[in-house]
Amino acid sequence: VQLQASGGGLVQAGGSLRLSCKASGSIFDIKAMGWYRQAPGNKRELVALITRGGTISNSDSVKGRFTISRDNAANTVLLQMNNLKPEDTAVYYCVADRGLSIYWGQGTEVTVSS
Question: Cβ(108)–Cβ(20) under 8 Å?
Answer without folding.
Answer: no
